[in-house]
Amino acid sequence: MKKTAALLLLLSVLLSCNGQDAKITKVAYVQKLEYGLKGAVKEVTSYIYRVENEKIPVNNGNYIGKITMTLDSLGNVMTIHKLWDFDRNPSTKIDNAEFTSHFFGKGKDISFKETSRYSDGDLKEIEHKYVWSDDYNYTIITQDDNAHSTLITLDKEYQLSKSIFKGDNMQSVEEWETISKNNKIQEIKTKITQNLEGKTTVTYQIQAVQEYDKYGNPTVLYGYQNLSKEKVENVIYKEYKYYE
């Protein structure tokens, strides 16, 4: 369950989508498209901060999460490194967690090996593979584990639209709605429906973009935990490196 929460947050933090054009030109799938990244992105690092006493934190290293993704020049993901410092978040019962994924293959022929460690526990290594059912749906299959799976649905531009995680007597569904203007993200709404041991809960998360870099990629986002956006719960700072 703890790992599931981290993976769900990861999806929320990494998600960003471009606006819809009147005419959609068919392009070949590459992982970069899932996140709506603009330009020749080489690396993107996200720093997640918890807001305390209604004071917007600065990007000073006291984050509760750091996610770094590297890509090749074609837009294929090479590595994803996730570091969660849960000790800075009293709502969790573990100190920290670290995940590193190494990806292999290009285009739709993708597999990856993930290593993980919670607090001072043992290092675990799991292999995964993408299995496509059609152009816009694939399942992330875990080797030697038939109890867990993640079904991903993409829109017609290969951007993330829906995720269904199943395992450990639970199912979690995330659905995303992106509001864009002038080909820039304005806001991302996430609906999360969880069914745990027969009990269903529905929650919402909002990410509102505050600043962009010169390519139009979001650099500062405010996070809310309800549709009314009454209180900023977290701030995400994103830093990009580009191929020249």
TrEMBL record:
<protein>
    <recommendedName>
        <fullName>Lipoprotein</fullName>
    </recommendedName>
</protein>
<keyword id="KW-0732">Signal</keyword>
<feature type="signal peptide">
    <location>
        <begin position="1"/>
        <end position="22"/>
    </location>
</feature>
